[in-house]
Amino acid sequence: MDIRVLLFLFLLSSSWFTNARELATTNLFPTRSGIASVMHLYGQQPKKEVQTAEGFGRNDQVCTLCEEFTVEAVNYLANNKTQTEILEILHKTCSKMRSFKQQCITLVDYYAPLIFLEISSVQPKEFCQKVDLCEEIVSISRSLSKNSCELCHNVVSEAITKLKDPDTQLEIVEVLLKACNAVQGYVEKCKRLVFEYVPVILVNAEQFLETKDICTMLHACDSAAQGLASSEKSMHAAS
Hints:
Layout (H helix, E strand, L loop, with lengths): L2 H16 L1 H4 L8 H11 L17 H19 L1 H15 L6 H20 L3 H7 L17 H17 L1 H15 L6 H25 L2 H4 L6 H15 L1
GO cellular component, one term: extracellular region
Pfam families: SapB_1, SapB_2
InterPro entries: SapB_1, SapB_2, Saposin, Saposin-like, SaposinB_dom, Sphingo_Act-Surfact_Prot
């Protein structure tokens, strides 16, 4: 992996969580990879189980929900104002990276437009099929399928649980350290970045999910009151 790409990924992750407050006043939507990772966390049910009894078959509710979220996310990130706000946040993050400041700004200016272009080409139907939410058969617990608001909060609750798990944190660090070994000439710098920024990113990600009403931001819940009630119910069930 090119050191520029690796640094940019660190920067993008760091700015997304540490500067979340700056985006909290706007409609916040995940990127293509963000949706995939969250849906993956939720998709712990057995894959493609054949269901022939009444009331089973293709789960249109979940499939439709995925496609709607994807459409909104793509439209949001395709907006010029949104892209400008994201670039500003990334540039502010660059100013905190000391000796990497100028390299960081160069990476942002080069890669951000490419990422926006890639996101704009996402096809909701194809994407949801890739993450196994629009297959012919998806077995999902009734308690998680009542409505999009409850489903969203169960996804967020599962994500928080994963982020608090020391084993999950260790796996993330190990994967990044292995990636550093492939960066010729920058292995030590890369590993320093992993040890310096990854713990902070994980903590900020956890705090962000716990303190922000993500599901209301994503319009999965009709109001902040509904989102809060569903969130408390999901947290209680998780505990």
